[in-house]
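Researcher: I'd like a candidate sequence for this fold, 175 residues long. If you have to choose between options at a position, lean toward the conservative one.
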């Protein structure tokens, strides 16, 4: 059955496209900030992967055809954190990094066995009540020290732990 929502591909079309060209994604690191704008907490999603493994993850998802990057970022934040998370998407959409995921292991620090993907990564302060939805089981808030620990990094597959460390460095909180 073909999904008729504009911008989405049918599963077989998506699989074919993933096999032939890079797909654009956005990644967001949800954070809590104090009154001075300093990051005090980092939110990580708890998910169960297709293989049944439990892991920690960032907010992440595809950018649709004819969708602005800002709109994709807001859509995925709402999808994963709930409608009252109150994200403050930066006025300038300059990502803190561009991560390139390869289906082949050891080509770079990022790996996605399904596809070659390019992700624009952002740190996004959220001020509201976060209630994970969709395939996210929970959202846990960590201190910057906890988030940079080797134990937590190991819980993030595909190099997302490296992406988290880059985010922490970007906001001056890498321990």
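Model: Candidate sequence:
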């Amino acid at each position: 059955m073909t999904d008729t929502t504009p911008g989405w591909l049918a599963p077989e079309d998506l699989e074919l496209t993933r096999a032939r060209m890079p797909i654009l994604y956005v990644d967001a690191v949800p954070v809590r900030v104090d009154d001075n704008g300093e990051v005090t907490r980092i939110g990580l999603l708890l998910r169960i992967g297709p293989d049944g493994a439990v892991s920690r993850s960032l907010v992440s998802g595809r950018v649709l055809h004819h969708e602005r990057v800002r709109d994709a970022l807001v859509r995925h934040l709402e999808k994963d954190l709930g409608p009252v998370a109150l994200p403050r998407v930066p006025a300038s959409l300059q990502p803190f990094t561009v991560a390139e995921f390869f289906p082949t292991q050891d080509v770079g620090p990022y790996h996605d066995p399904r596809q070659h993907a390019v992700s624009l990564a952002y740190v996004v302060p959220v001020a509201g009540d976060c209630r994970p939805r969709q395939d996210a089981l929970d959202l846990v808030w960590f201190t910057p020290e906890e988030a940079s620990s080797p134990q937590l990094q190991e819980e993030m597959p595909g190099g997302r732990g490296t992406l988290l460390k880059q985010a922490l460095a970007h906001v001056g909180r890498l321990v």
